[in-house]
Structures are given as structure tokens and as C-alpha cells.
Amino acid sequence: MDWLEITLDTRHEDIDALCERLESLGVSGIVINDETAVTDFLEKGKKYWDYVDDEVMDRVRGVCSLQFYLEDSEDGRSELERIRAALDVPELKTRQVRDEDWENNWREYYKPIETGEKLVIIPEWEDAPDCGSRVPLRLDPGLIFGTGSHATTRMCLEELENYPAETVMDLGCGSGILAIASLLLGAGKAYCCDIDEKAPDVVRSNGELNALYSDRLIVYAGDILSDRPLRSVLSQRSYDLILANIVADVIIRLAPFAAERLAPDGIFICSGIIEGRQDEVLSALRNSGLEIVSSRSLSDWYCYTARLKR
Predict the structure, then answer these.
(1) SS3 for 67?
(2) What is the pLDDT of residue 126?
(3) Which of 36, 101, 266, 299 would you call most buried, defined as having the most Cβ atoms within 10 angstroms of its Cβ?
(4) Which domain does 18 fall in, by range?
(5) Strand pairing of 119-123 and 135-139?
């Protein structure tokens, strides 16, 4: 089906009244684009991120508008004229949109990505290329972080290739890409957790794309920092490899837990550390009884590999 996307520019202080007016005219599915709301949301959620891509802010800078959709048909255009007249607005921006535009256009940005020396990440809808000696990792990016394209994820993938492991824990697993990579490279079991309640379904789905199932890929939803039952479950064993691709503040708080759960020769790989926060993270790792084995940096992001002090 084809649709008309209608955009109505407004002001932040007029959004609520205009939404009520549109709803009274029978309009549903209203999309709000508001720089002020985005800025407030980012400010309130600082504990979850250190950095927001400039592209995100560029898309909302100076924007305050409402959008809704009508069928691109004679009836839909008649409805649009009725709404235009009722609002007494001379100009409404309209754009034609197809269902498949929403469903598939985003996929064009995801192509096979070679990482390190051993892996190639392949979107699940792409035909498998000739991987040569590389191990293919099938992935549906979905709506959760972890596609292999971000600098933090790439550094973790490159680093974990150097550390064969039997038992892995992935803290803040997102799409499950790091845990899945470790299993494809020879690990026996990976235990994952993420604060996002969608993570278990996403991780299991991505696991199945790689013939990895719940006997080897175990995933939980919850906040490892505050969820005591989850912390208790993950504390029942030690780990040869612990992964944390999150943000500096969370890594700092996780460092003691990671140190406690590492096997004697275990490795802790952490990333998601933006330029300016690296010294704080290094201090937290060392204060937790860890020593740095190696470090990487890429595009203003840092990745550290650590082990228990010997």
C-alpha cells in the first residue's frame, strides 16, 4: 500500500494542543519530532551513554513538527483536505511513502564486514560471499546495538580473537554479536545479559542464524548492577572471558564484579569508553585488582584488555 506522509511544523509549547486537535479530527498514529524532547531525554538518560552521534543531533536540531499518515488514495486525499480546512493551515508538507520503504530501505546500510583476521559479519538477508578462511557470523541487526560496524564493537571483536575461551560472559550483550563470535571461534558456552527486555529474543534469534542454541547461548534480561537474583545466577561460575561493550560509567561499576568472576587466567575485555573517560576506567580496573594486557583506540573510542594481577 502507498501512503501520504503529512508533516506539520509547530512549536514545542503547541505540541500537546495540536495533538489533541488532530485526534479530535480522527487522526491517529501521530509522530512527534521535537528537538527539546530529544535533548531532555538524552540529558535524563546520561547514565546509559557517554556519547551521542552528531548525526542524531543534526537530524533533530531546530526541528519541531508532527507527522501522520493517510492512504495515498482518493479517499485519503479527501481526508487530507478536510483536515487542512479544519486546522486552517495553508501549507502541509506531504510525501509519498511505500510500505516497503519502511520495511527494507534501512537494510541497504548493512553489508558484510570483515573484522580482525578470522571473522566476517554477514547480514542475514545477504547471500553468503566466499568467506575464504574467515568464519561467517550471521546477524540480524534489528533494533538493538551491535552490528559490527561501530568502532567499539569492532575493537572487541578483533581483541577476543586473541583469547580462546571455554566459558564466556557478555555484560550488556545487545544483539549478542560478541558472545556469538566467541562461540563461533571455539568457546563452549556464553552467558549474556542486557538491560533491554528485548535482548533475549534478539540474541536467541541471532544465535539460531548461526546454529547456536540455548544449550550454549544463555541470555537474561536485567540490570547486572542492581538485579540481585541475576547477579546471583551469573556468580555461580567463573569465566575464561568476560566482555563489556557498554559505557565508561557502567564499566567502572562493573570492574569489581568482573574481577571476582574471572578464572585465574581469565581475560576481561571492555570497550565503549569515549575519549576523556579512559583514565577513570583504567583507575577502576587497577583498583579492582586487574592489570592491563593491551589497549586499542579507534575514532575517539578506547578498548582495554585486562587480567587478574599476578
Answers:
(1) strand
(2) 78
(3) 266
(4) 2-105
(5) parallel
